[in-house]
Design a protein that fits this description.
single chain, 399 residues, alpha/beta, Archaeosine Trna-guanine Transglycosylase, Chain: A, domain 4, Transcription Regulator spoIIAA, Rossmann fold, seven-stranded mixed sheet, five-stranded mixed sheet, 19 strands
Length: 399
């Protein structure tokens, strides 16, 4: 039997765990029996029901609202190198089944039984993000497990996300193994890219929209395309590679657009790709003033709603953005509108699109709906893991 310190839940507070969830909130802990102040951040624990029955193992953080996370429902399995290797091998088997080349999200947190851990693979380079104190505690074991499973030439920690602050963790970047290249090499949907290694967004790339970008290619041949919040060209360069006649890419980061231009040249599409640096809302307003129109517009903004209290303001931002895009579309244009905020539901984004189309006196048809790629599997008990949504819409004059 496990020798880990117990963390006892209040009576009936184990019901969510028993239905499949893996999080425990601080108000669910029986602090009379197991005071949270007695634990260190990231300390491994044996989770117990009120009657002492073991529920599994996990780790605790007394300073976080999500004060504990389940690692295994078997009390004999702890978060060790051996378990990390096993979970990574299971995750790898799915990715290798799906993708012929080693460019994907290898580990997606709770959905892969690795709470607080994200690993993106770029060929021989792994970029790792840790967002939970329990995973930070086994950082060396994560490196050892990745070396055993993948034998990468380089492992980089991009531990600079805002989520770490909620766990009381400091922000840093670190090269744990090998020498970090200046750029990450990526192949997605048969299109090649470079992305910044150390100072790019997130881990450098957004694999989650891979399937949606593949579907986008069916709509752009012979069309003019506007890619808003383009970053280094994941959507825009793939549109050009699929036969778009011209692609305009908007981003507020000149350094990202410099990489985008290199990516256009890498795919021999530089003659059809234009980069526009500026605030997306300001640029969209300027384009409308210039009476420009586009056949296809892609809206892939950052999360406008990062916290529940931001929902009203974020929803208003989605409305303004989609309205500006619809006003720039050709008469029979295609709008691809996405949201990566877990607080914005699919129904909410659909409602934004409907109300906005009515406001600008357009008829809207939803042709397809997109989700996150399968290397970002959804944990059915954790709605937050089902975060990405995209609508492929046909926008017509009022009929």
């Amino acid at each position: 039997m496990s020798t880990l310190a117990p963390l006892v839940l209040k009576k009936d507070e184990d019901r969510r765990l028993r239905t499949g969830h893996t999080w425990i909130f601080s108000n669910e802990v029986d602090t009379a029996k197991t005071p949270l102040t007695a634990f260190e951040p990231g300390q491994p624990v044996l989770l117990q029901a009120h009657n002492g029955k073991p529920l599994g193992t996990g780790f605790v953080n007394p300073h976080s609202l999500i004060c504990a996370r389940l690692v295994s429902r078997d009390p004999e399995y702890h978060l060790t190198k051996s378990l990390l290797v096993h979970r990574l091998q299971i995750a790898l088997s799915l990715r290798e089944r799906l993708y012929p080349e080693p460019y994907y999200r290898l580990a997606f947190g709770d959905s892969d039984g690795l709470p607080g851990l994200v690993v993106d693979r770029y060929g021989a380079v792994c970029v790792v993000q840790i967002s939970a104190a329990g995973m930070e505690r086994v950082k060396d074991d994560i490196v050892a497990a990745l070396e055993k499973v993948l034998h990468p030439e380089c492992i980089i920690f991009r531990n600079d996300s805002g989520m770490r602050e909620l766990e009381g963790l400091s922000a840093y970047t670190e090269v744990a193994v090998g020498n970090a290249p200046a750029m990450l090499d990526i192949t997605e949907n048969n299109v090649k890219f470079h992305a910044p290694t150390q100072d790019g967004q997130k881990t450098g790339w957004f694999y989650d929209h891979r399937a949606n970008r593949r579907r986008m290619q069916e709509y752009v041949r012979g069309q003019t395309v506007l890619d808003v919040f383009s970053y280094v060209g994941g959507w825009g360069i793939q549109a050009a590679a699929a036969g778009a006649t011209s692609v305009s890419c908007i981003d507020s980061s000149q350094s990202a657009l410099d990489v985008l231009k290199d990516n256009a040249a890498l795919n021999q599409t530089q003659d059809r790709v234009q980069a526009i640096c500026g605030d997306a809302f300001d640029v969209l307003k300027s384009l409308r003033a210039d009476k420009q129109h586009f056949d296809v517009i892609v809206l892939d903004p950052p999360a406008f709603v990062r916290r529940k209290k931001d929902l009203a303001a974020g929803t208003e931002a989605y409305q303004r953005l989609n309205q500006a895009a619809m006003q720039l579309l050709s008469r029979d244009g295609i709008l691809i509108s996405a949201s990566c905020s877990s607080y914005v539901t699919r129904d909410s984004l659909r409602g934004v699109l409907l109300s906005t189309s009515r406001h600008v006196d357009r008829t809207l048809q939803i042709i397809e709906q997109g989700h996150q790629a399968p290397d970002h599997p959804v944990h059915p008990a954790i709605p937050e893991t089902d975060y990405l949504k995209a609508f492929f819409c046909r926008v017509l004059p009022t009929q």
